[in-house]
Design a protein that fits this description.
29 strands; 8-stranded antiparallel β-sheet; alpha+beta; 9-stranded mixed β-sheet; about 675 residues
Length: about 675
């Protein structure tokens, strides 16, 4: 047990997985919601640039009150929300159980440990025996003797957790769990689609800055006033300060964006500015297809009228599409309609109005359009478009999104001359939560001076593998595309690598960076490549609070730092060239800064220029008229990797690489 966990244990907290939680402060949700929220804290003690600091953040664990056995019984009896009634056993029950449970995280309350369900052994039972310390015992006797837990249902199957690779090397085998004493964690799809529930859950688990600071300070006070904790700290010759660290940050200037030929100073949300401007590069929608089921014919007409109405002021022309009415909403009907009506090299895109969010139908449409053909698609759910009071707002977003997919430009960053000829590359890796499908590494690179057009490509590699060996191929293709469009290679290349933990930095530097270096050297032999490699990280514990000025509004209430805040001292690491940047606005919760680590550079740039560039790039994600938490190429790479891993499962048509077909 680590020292931090010891301190938390002394004040009555319990360890569950990677976090530590307070069961006495659990927050029960009212019936019929079957879960509770356990508050807790995550912490670390590390050497920073000037001193050793303890970093603390609030954390919450969502605990379902129902057991796995209860869920399985509901599935068997047809009572599970969101599923057909009357499924009494048979293959349908087994299929549903596998789909709902495999990949889920469960907690065993008898030891507060979490496990991932990898399989269900339908032939195993609690009455089965296994060897323990040279003796054969049943699961029933094991849990009674070791945890005083009585298992009542003798006819339930057992859940299987497979060992990880490192555990296999140690000779560890499968772990079998009894559903009756396993509790589910996390949200169901039904929960996620419940707007009022999600709003209430957000209120309870995403505190505002002042509330979060009070919780953290209360946690620190409990430790430093606990006698056991004080004795433990004295053994280490350490003490914990009762107050938070005061540090100085600085604020970057607001950015200017070019909209409709005008340079406009923007904040963190420029939707109103967009509504008052024409898009920079409009793409006329001349040849397109609108596919909808017969029962949604009136809604299809309303959506088309709304799109035409909002497109005019944007400067975007919309011709009448081929209206394809389906007799039903089966997946095969959508695919057949696309197959029959798409004109090769003529159809710009297909608009699909969907009755529901069935994943298999969405996946089939995307595979057909992206992989089997090279046609862009825009899918819209009927329940979202049917809100008449929001129809024009929805249509505005649709027209913007389609224009971007077709190669248009909504706005552009105001770039200094020194950045001209620069290629920005974003890299991210998607992993299957169930650890069954291959991981996906996506690379998205700018290919024009205003950094609004992208080259996008991805590769599959071994499941769970973060470090990729395919960067040479991907980046060579991206630079070839830049050369074809611009007639020259980029003068400098700046890479933002997302999703890498601190423990992987050296491997990334030695392996991924080396691939990029070899690629650039091969293109321009005899020259030293102008390149910078930055690692971005969003999942961090560090939080910053803006202290109000004396006599200012709000009294002593702590607030979120304003977007554009940079912290590059005190909490940076001595072995790194790093900084924190707050680029997005959090209205009701505490904002999470993004950590940037300049892992390697041959550019003669001051740190302030990297900070400024990073903030600029947070203004160029075209699927949101506002700032985002990471540079746009990183977010595009995240979206591309997610689509590839969740829906496509194979490589797209090469023609798709020049389009943002995944937003």
């Amino acid at each position: 047990m680590t020292h931090c966990k010891k301190l938390k244990r002394y004040i009555g907290m319990v360890s569950i997985g990677q976090g530590t939680y307070d069961p006495l402060q659990k927050d029960l949700f009212p019936h019929p919601h079957k879960f509770e929220v356990w508050p807790g804290f995550v912490s670390s003690v590390l050497p920073y640039v000037n001193q050793t600091l303890m970093c603390v953040d609030t954390h919450f664990k969502l605990m379902r009150t129902e057991t796995v056995l209860a869920l399985m019984q509901d599935l068997y009896n047809g009572r599970s929300p969101g599923h057909r009634q009357g499924n009494h056993g048979g293959e349908d029950f087994y299929t549903q159980a596998i789909r709902q449970l495999v990949g889920q995280i469960v907690i065993t309350r008898y030891n507060n440990k979490t496990y991932r369900i990898d399989d269900i052994d339908w032939n195993a039972r609690p009455t089965d025996t296994f060897e323990k310390n040279g003796e054969d015992m049943t699961f029933i006797s094991y849990f009674k003797n070791h945890y005083n837990v009585v298992i009542e249902n003798m006819d339930q199957p057992l859940l299987v957790t497979r060992p990880k690779k490192k555990d296999l090397k140690l000779g560890k085998s499968n772990i079998y769990l009894v559903p009756e004493i396993c509790h589910l964690t996390g949200l169901t799809d039904v929960n996620r689609n419940n707007f009022s529930l999600m709003k209430e859950l957000s209120r309870r688990t995403q505190p505002d800055p002042n509330t979060k600071a009070q919780k953290i300070m209360g946690f620190i006070k409990r430790i430093i006033t606990n006698e056991q904790a004080k004795e433990e700290l004295s053994k280490w010759s350490m003490s914990i300060e009762p107050d938070m660290l005061n540090i100085e940050g600085h604020l970057l200037n607001q950015e200017k964006l070019i909209m409709g030929g005008k340079e406009i100073m923007v904040g963190t949300d420029w939707r109103n500015d967009m509504l008052a401007s024409r898009v920079n590069v409009p793409v006329h929608m001349r040849s397109w297809i609108f596919v909808f089921p017969r029962k949604l014919a009136h809604l299809a007409s309303d959506v088309l009228s709304g799109m035409k109405r909002v497109a005019g002021p944007m400067g975007i022309g919309i011709d009448m599409p081929d209206m394809i009415e389906l007799v039903d909403d089966r997946t095969e009907s959508y695919i057949n309609a696309m197959r029959v009506n798409i004109k090769h090299r003529q159809t710009q895109f297909v608009f699909c109005l969907l009755t529901s969010d069935r994943k298999d139908r969405y996946d089939a449409i995307k595979v057909f359009s992206c992989c089997d053909h090279s046609v862009l698609t825009q899918c819209v759910l009927a329940n979202k478009a049917s809100n008449k009071t929001k129809l024009l707002t929805i249509c505005t977003g649709l027209v913007w999104q389609i224009n971007v997919k077709l190669g248009g430009e909504l706005w552009a960053m105001s770039l200094p001359k020194g950045l001209m000829g620069t290629m920005i590359i974003g890299i991210d890796v998607w992993h299957d939560p169930k650890r069954k499908r291959p991981s996906v590494c996506a690379v998205v690179a700018t290919r024009n001076p205003s950094m609004s057009l992208m080259y996008s490509q991805f590769v599959f590699h071994e499941a769970g593998q973060e470090i990729t060996s395919h960067l040479t191929t991907l980046i060579t293709a991206a630079r070839r595309c830049y050369y074809e469009d611009m007639g020259r290679l980029p003068e400098r290349t700046i890479i933002f690598r997302d999703g890498v933990g601190d423990g992987q930095l050296e491997v990334v530097k030695q392996y991924e960076l080396q691939q990029i270096w070899d690629c650039l050297k091969q293109e321009q032999p005899g020259q030293s490549p102008k390149v910078a490699f930055l690692v971005t990280k969003k999942r961090i514990k560090e939080r910053f609070f803006a202290v109000p000025e004396a006599g200012g509004r709000g009294g002593g209430t702590l607030r979120n730092p304003p977007p554009g805040t940079v912290v590059d001292s005190e909490v940076t690491r001595p072995e790194a060239s790093d900084f924190f940047l707050v680029s997005q606005l959090a209205r009701h919760s505490t904002v999470t800064p993004t950590h940037y680590n300049i892992l390697y550079t041959t550019l003669d740039w001051p740190a302030s220029l990297y900070q400024r560039l990073s903030y600029k790039l947070c203004h160029s994600y075209f699927n949101w008229a506002g700032t985002v938490s990471v540079p746009a190429p990183c977010l595009y790479a995240h979206k591309l990797a997610y689509l590839a891993g969740e829906s496509l499962h194979r490589n797209p048509n090469p023609d798709m690489a020049r389009h943002l077909y995944y937003i």
